[in-house]
Amino acid sequence: MMTSTRMGSMHWTLRRKGRMTFKDQITYVRSSALVQLKARLPHLPFLTEGPSTKHSAELLEQVKIPSSPLIQEAQAYVRDLATDTIFYHSIRAYFWGSLLRLKSHHSMDEETFYLSCLFHDLGLTSSLHGKLEGAECFTLESAQAGQQFLQQHDVAEETQDTIFGAITLHLNPIVDGKENGWIAHYLNAGTACDVIGARYGEIHKSDRQTVLQRYPRGTFKSDLIRIFEQEAAMRPCSRIALMNRFGFLKMIQCAPFSS
User: Fold this and answer.
1) Do residues 211 and 95 touch, judged by C-beta distance below 8 A?
2) In this structure, which of 6, 39, 54, 163 has its CB flanked by the most CB atoms within 10 Å?
3) Cα 35 from Cα 117, distance rounded (Å)
4) How confident is the model at residue 31 (pLDDT cuts 50, 70, 90)?
5) What stretch of H or E contains 206?
């Protein structure tokens, strides 16, 4: 696996512990500006991504949660630590990311992607949040918890690194699939869809309704805002703290979901 020093990468996170420099903040804000422009002006043709959303197809029947013994143990491990808010968000992110991937015809290992989704917010659970000494971002706590689980189950180091990197990158405004791998790209896309509604319109309405019925949001918006406010207060130099200063919590409130 190629080592990357890009902000949010595994190498960057381990070296910086998730703490942003002023240069990192400038880079992040520039990337965020394009993402927010795309979200607010989706009708501009040069800002659209992929085929027209008016012709989105029903694809949900093609998306299945993997069922290997490793997946079953990982799901039980996460379910034991996570609230309904975090657990169902992780599964919805898997479905949104998978549906967007099918629409774009990219290939990736579904089991590795599901594990990335399962573990990506473990650092926000009460058992782990703020518990890792020196950590300046919850994604480091999430990635290390996932890595420890995978090591205990003798998962290949390359797969561990793929999942670790996808988790630490997922907070970036843009995660390029060609540069960072499609698992990282679609973890970012799936979580962004669930949190702020990014690319939500590209998913067929019936598929959206089915996923939301199976994995209800409950009080997701208010719960996530509270958790992110805690993260920002605890870690003022983190990506979440910077995002909050530039209106991220308002974007959560305005996402195209009732809760």
Assistant:
1) yes
2) 163
3) 22
4) confident
5) helix 205-214
